[in-house]
């Protein structure tokens, strides 16, 4: 895994997305065909990722956590500077509030669009076709076909499942 991370750092940002996907596969991750994964993005810790076909992972996106799993569906767009973090801690004693470490899976459904600078925390499921507004903190499940935004993220509105453009 360590060697894979070093090689990814040496590859130009988007020049070789197929190579980036191949390196991630060699590191034990499941990366489908047609995935564009910027080499500046990172997989840190013991977390394993699965990314569905034709999905996009932008510049400096971070997948991080302990022994857990992050699944990104097909046809997803994950913008730049997104943090998808499976790890956290139990509340510890007064001597050290960050207690026992824990890590919980994250599932991102097909067709999801995650805006710039979003943070997704462990245990979250984002439903198919949903949009997460830029800068949001997602700490609870998101239903299908909705726009969520804010800190913490909350429902902004529902959206249809057709291909009609909507103003946000």
UniProtKB/TrEMBL annotation:
Keywords: Acyltransferase, Repeat, Transferase
Gene3D superfamilies named in the record: Hexapeptide repeat proteins
Record PROSITE patterns: HEXAPEP_TRANSFERASES
Xref: Pfam families: Hexapep, Hexapep_2
Taxonomic placement: Bacteria, Pseudomonadati, Bacteroidota, Sphingobacteriia, Sphingobacteriales
Protein name per UniProt: Maltose O-acetyltransferase
Keyword Repeat: yes
Source organism of this protein record: Pedobacter duraquae
InterPro entries in the record: Hexapep, Hexapep_transf_CS, Hexapeptide_acetyltransf, Trimer_LpxA-like_sf
GO molecular function: acyltransferase activity
